[in-house]
Known about the structure:
- This protein is α/β, with parallel strands linked by helices.
- Helix content is 36%, strand content 20%.
- It has a six-stranded parallel β-sheet, with helices on both faces. It has a three-stranded antiparallel β-sheet with strand order 7-8-9.
- Strand 8 (260-270) and strand 9 (273-283) form a beta hairpin.
- The longest helix is centred in the middle third of the chain and has 16 residues, at 125-140.
- It binds adenosine monophosphate (AMP).
- Residues 29-30, 36-37, 39-40, 147-148, 150-151, 174, 176-177, 184-187 line the site of adenosine monophosphate.
Amino acid sequence: MQVVTEIEAMRAISREVHHRGESVALVPTMGAFHAGHLALMRRARELATVTVVSLFVNPLQFGPGEDWARYPRRLESDRAAAEAAGVDYLFVPSESAMYPHGEVVARVVVGRMAEVLCGRSRPTHFNGVATVVAKLFHIVEPDWAVFGQKDGQQVAIIRRMVEDLNFPVRIAVVPTVREPTGLALSSRNEYLTEAERRKAAALYQALSAGQARFAGGERHPQVLVEAVRAVLAEAGIQPEYVELVQAWDLGAAPDPLAPGAYLLAVAAWVGTARLIDNVILTVPEPSAS
Ligand code: AMP
């Protein structure tokens, strides 16, 4: 595995790969690798001949007072983990390479999909994500880019950005990797104490309760949301939001739910960690018989 820090070198490598008639899959990350990241790397290896993992703790997607300075950074162990996972190139640009002017003037503005769910409390977050992902797409020119369903709003926004702005890249999404308790793996879980980590498992238990009501035939969004809220309340967690929205465009879910895919999503603070999780609920089309 080669570590690449220069933008021009990364682009030259990708162009050389394409010149050979081979393909590139990109996994954008902020590092502190866990089994979720490794699942994305495995998927990337299945999709293309060459796997590029980018590692960049993007300041543009953190708001003032958020955890940018505190975010875990451990390049050496990440490098070893990526190498063991069979990654070909680890792209680790510096902040001055990515934002040479400091100030960013031209950026991707996402609009209404960035204003719901996490966007309510993190109003600049998804513009920062979309901007850095667009830059990475221009630098790496991947055939495939791989994202985790754990960040469901991010997935929907990136898919839409790719369509709206005609990026020549295909998006692959990997299911959320969880601890045995159900807690979704996250670099931010490192902020949790042992007791908080046990408490945080309630996020997925709550989503599972909503999922169970849905599986039992419940089709009223508000009832499903309340089922999630009840489990969170029992665990002493006051969520920032629990919402059920259309999975593809994050628009309001109809009441009752019509055929289609929905994102049942939660965000909550546990200790000093802001955690998110989601499940997808799919209402099948009525059978044509
Ligand atoms: P991050 O380094 O947290 O920005 O995440 C990089 C990528 O890994 C994103 O596409 C995330 O959605 C994905 N990811 C993070 N945690 C998980 C998880 N538990 N399961 C699957 N994918 C994940």
